Amino acid sequence: MSETPTAEGGASYASAGVDIEAGDRAVELMKEWVRKTRRPEVLGGLGGFAGLFDASALKRYERPLLASATDGVGTKVDLARRLGVYDTIGHDLVAMVMDDIVVCGAEPLFMTDYICVGKVHPERVAAIVKGIAEGCVLAGCALVGGETAEHPGLLGPDDFDVAGAGTGVVEADRVLGAERIRSGDAVIAMASSGLHSNGYSLVRHVVFDRAGMTLEQQVPEFGRTLGEELLEPTKIYSLDCLALTRAAEVHAFSHITGGGLAANLARVIPDALHAVVDRSTWTPGAVFDLVGTAGQVERLELEKTLNMGVGMMAVVPPESVDVALSVLADRGVGAWVAGEITERGEHTTGATLVGDYAS
Questions:
Q1: Where would I find the beta strands (DSSP E) of 176-309?
Q2: Model confidence over 164-182: pLDDT tens digits?
Q3: How does DSSP classify residue 286?
């Protein structure tokens, strides 16, 4: 059947706002960065319909379990758009996905991304992918593919969003979690790099709507602008956590994301036990104080929304504490004993914060 010619002035994909050539240009620009994430198990190159990963590499496992996770970075993308900085948001995306995967003790294997834009700006898309690729290197995984979608009419020309999905693998008898935790275990906190990628709806409301601050505003407590502080990439703990499991006995990890420290720690605490975390063991960074003070946000509300300076927690037996702290220190991760596991009382919940933050 022959095609009917398009009438002069008729509709086309381009006239509807989708630029296929710009999309092709973006793919060419991002190939260099994707190649940097390549692992030996990855087959083929960028541009296929699916990424291929050689599963025969898993033969070394007795009973390999695949772990998967998906996430985005929320309204933090709005700050990247406002500042015109696109090469850090990918770090956030990898952290949100791969640090969830490592919680069960899984080694990150590969990741795919989804970038949705109002209009394809090839250099901008390539910068986003550059950040994702750099994050994948930090997490030890490959970026095997993704999708860039142009949605004119739904998103403004400069608007965008990102999401990703990842896969890892763990030996069945080495899965970490609640069933390993015992009363008397220590809770080790690992310092966050800042706000990470949660709570930005509250943060943006406080600093812009209530405090009237600007992203270009210098903040003495930060030693840089507000925008630079808010855009600080999320810490990627994946390889640090794996190094910890190789050097010491670890019973569980908890990735501190949306919902705050107590709620996320409670997710890995068994019903019969209780985690007590002492606030006096650390001082949250200045950005948390700014949000609380500028927005007159009560402490409990802050703690339900933000990580308060702790991005990951490890639950280890007492005899593993010294080795765990030494390993993390050697890897440049700020860490300290923040609490312990006790028997659950009649009126206690999974995890409780006690005391006041150190000044």
A1: 186-191, 218-219, 224-225, 252-255, 273-278
A2: 999 999 999 999 999 999 9
A3: H
